[in-house]
Structures are given as C-alpha cells and as structure tokens.
Specification:
It is a single chain. The protein is 22% helix and 17% strand. The chain is built from eight helices and 16 strands. The protein has helices at residues 19-34, 80-93, 135-140, 156-165, 181-193, 197-206, 265-276, 289-295, and strands at residues 6-9, 40-47, 50-61, 66-67, 74-75, 115-120, 123-127, 230-232, 238-240, 262-263, 280-281, 284-285, 314-315, 318-319, 375-379, 386-392. A hairpin with a 6-residue loop joins strand 15 (375-379) and strand 16. The protein is globular, with a radius of gyration of 20 Å. Residues 306-395 have low confidence and may be disordered.
Length: 395
C-alpha cells in the first residue's frame, strides 16, 4: 500500500535518518532567522509518508512578534503552478483533449494571435504564427506569452482575453518564456470542466488529498495563521511588503492559476507525496503513474529563459545562481517540466522538482539543488516568512 502523510512523528532512525544530524536543520533555520535572513520558517521532512522533522522558528508577524507555528499558512506564489498542471493532466487523462491540440479550439481568442517582430514608426510590426499555440506549449512555457501585470480583481477570463490580444515574444515552441501560460491553462480547466477553478481544485484535488488549509482565500478564523511577507530594506533587514500582503479574507477573490494559492507545509507535502507515489495518496488516485512520468521528463531540452530572467539558467530542473553554471546546458532527467516553476527573483522563491530516484534533500543552502529522489519545498528563500520542506518516497 502506498505511504500516506500523517502528523504522527516517526523516530528518525526508523526511517534511515540520524536524530542528531536532523537537529542541524533547526539549528540552521534559527541561525538564518537570527541573522535577519528570514522572518520565520517552517521546515518539514517526510519519508515514506512519515514526518521525521517538523519545526517552526521565528515569527509570522514581525510587528506583533507573533511566533511562527508549524501550521502556518503561506502564499504559495508559483508553487501554485504544479497544482494547475496536475489539474490539466487530469482532464487529459479523461480524454478531453490531446496535448498537441491548438488552444484556440477551446479559447477562440487565441485564433488571431500574432508574434512580435520589431518596433516601428507606426507602432509594432507583427507576423503570422508558423504554428498554432498548443496545450503542450502552455505546459512547457514555450508558447511565447509575454509577461503581464495582473490587474486588481481581474478574472481569469478577463486576463486571458488580455493575454490573447498581445503579440507573442517568439514563435510557439521556439523559446522558453516564463510568464502566464499557466493562467491560460486555468481558464482551459474552467472551460472544459464547466467549474470555477477554485471549485475544481477543491473537489478534485484538495478534498481527496485532505489539503484542508489550501485555497485561494483564507477564512477569518484562520487568518491569524497567515504569514506576512517581508522584503529586504536598504539597511539589510526586512520590511513589510506593502504590495505582497493583499487581503485574502474577503472572497470572492478571483483565482490566479499561476500563483495565488495559500497552503501549509503539511498540505503541500501531501501533494508532493502524491506525485512521488506515482499519482496516488492512500486510497485516492489523482493521476496515473505514466502521466507522472510524462510530466517529470525533460521536454524543453537546452532552451534558455527569455527575459525577464535572462541571467538565471535552468539546471537539473531548478534555477541556479548566475555565477553557478550560467553557460552550462541543462543536465537533468527531471528537466524544465510541467511541474517545475522557474526562478522567482523576488520576495518569494519557490522551487519544486520531483524526481524518480532515491536521495535525501539538503535544505540548508538556498542556492543548492536537491539530489534526485526528493521533492523540495521552499517559499521565502532569504527575504520573507518561509515554508520549507522535503518529501521523499522510495525504498
């Protein structure tokens, strides 16, 4: 039977860990907190569905000195994307579409898409597409959709109409441009399923996986558990992020499929464990094993990110620092897949890469990529309240 995640503690040695060495995780997190690198941290390590490390340190609110709790709720930012991609592949398994179907068959506004050529005296010169934008392009972030500033209270339908009206940054499939492809996929889910995105996520993913604290909004009774977001200040400390701490307590809040979910470390660990189990958790099957294998294969090869991230190459499915292998091609089995959010060089830095082989995660260094066999969760990196954790399933 597949392993499931419970909150009961397991002795580290029972799962092949050293209790004394695991203690260094908490020590490292407290050291980073004392140095002002984080406001607060929740760290989590799960093996075979059993929690061997779960610890909170620091504060979820620096102004009131509210301590961070292990059930703290965090803004997932781009760690929303893997959940959206899983939802898309659920519909794919049901035969609702093929990956190479043009998106315009489902969202006709993309039927008139053009690609940017150059700026001219008359404005912008555009060209016809060499090939249509497909669902596969959207999953791979190779559709060419340009970066887009979200508008307040904008629905997915409104956003997708705006995205479809902008010229593409490049021909579909010719480059890798991180942006809002996942929002288009969210709208695709709504059109095909006939359900609002938040309801589809809740009924098809969150409830089966018992992710009770994962949603696009936070009820008033849970709001005190929501960690505040902080940004670096000029003195090297942290300051309250005015634009990153939007009110999530007053629905209806239009969902953003690319980055507006909230969750706890344990909720997201259950999602990760499902992926590591090959698509199931306990008695619930979300995806088939072969679909998970497809999602974690390298589909982008040596394609490099287009702006706004020109200096952050992708290696082993994760971003590396500019001075760490900037000119090296990707070397990975996981690759830049449907599940891998690219670098987020801002207040939150989620990185997520499930792979198939055995290994143990190193969570101490923010820049390091995990070895094969781990799912590494990190929200916050060095500038905000952080959720971090690893889940592993293997022999």
């Amino acid at each position: 039977m597949q392993a499931t995640i419970g909150m009961e503690a397991a002795f580290a040695e029972e799962e092949g860990f050293s209790s004394s060495r695991l203690g260094t995780i908490g020590e490292a997190m407290r050291r980073l907190d004392n140095q002002g690198k984080f406001a607060g941290v929740v760290s989590l390590l799960v093996r075979r569905g059993r929690v061997v490390h779960l610890e909170a340190t620091g504060f979820s609110d620096l102004e009131t000195r509210r301590p961070m709790d292990r059930d703290g709720i965090f803004r997932l930012a781009s760690m929303t994307k893997p959940i959206t991609s899983v939802a898309v592949m659920m519909l794919f398994e049901e035969g609702k579409f093929l990956l190479d179907d043009p998106i315009a068959e489902f969202l006709p506004e993309f039927g008139q898409a053009k690609v940017f050529l150059r700026e001219s005296a008359n404005g912008v010169d555009v060209a016809e597409l060499d090939r249509p934008i497909t669902i596969r392009h959207l999953l791979m972030h190779t559709a060419g959709l340009r970066p887009y500033r979200n508008r307040e209270n904008e629905t997915l339908e409104e956003k997708v109409h705006q995205l479809a009206s902008l010229p593409l940054a490049h021909q579909p499939g010719d480059g890798w441009t991180y942006g809002h492809s996942t929002d288009v996929l969210g709208r695709l889910i709504e059109k095909i399923s006939g359900l609002p995105l938040d309801r589809f996520f809740r009924e098809r993913i969150f409830e089966p996986l018992e992710m009770s604290d994962t949603a696009f909004d936070v009820p008033r009774e849970k709001y005190a558990r929501l960690a505040r977001v902080y940004t670096p200040d000029e003195a090297g400390g942290l300051r309250y992020g005015e634009t990153q701490n939007s009110d999530l307590s007053a629905p209806p809040i239009p969902p953003r499929a690319s980055g507006s979910l909230v969750a706890t470390a344990t909720d997201y660990a259950r999602f990760c464990q499902m992926l590591l189990n090959g698509g199931s958790l306990g008695r619930e099957r979300i995806l088939g094993r072969k679909t998970i294998e497809l999602m974690t294969a390298n589909h982008t090869g040596a394609k490099r990110p287009f702006p706004p991230f020109p200096d952050f190459p992708i290696r082993n499915g994760l971003p590396c620092h500019p001075d760490e292998g900037q000119h090296r091609p990707p070397r990975t089995r996981a690759g830049s897949s449907h599940l891998d959010p690219p670098p987020q060089v801002r207040v939150q830095d989620p990185q997520f890469s499930p792979t198939a082989r055995n290994g143990v995660s190193r969570r101490i260094r923010p820049r390091s990529s995990p070895p094969p066999g781990t799912v590494k969760i990190r929200v916050g990196c060095s500038t905000t309240s952080a959720m971090s954790g690893s889940t592993r399933y293997g022999a």
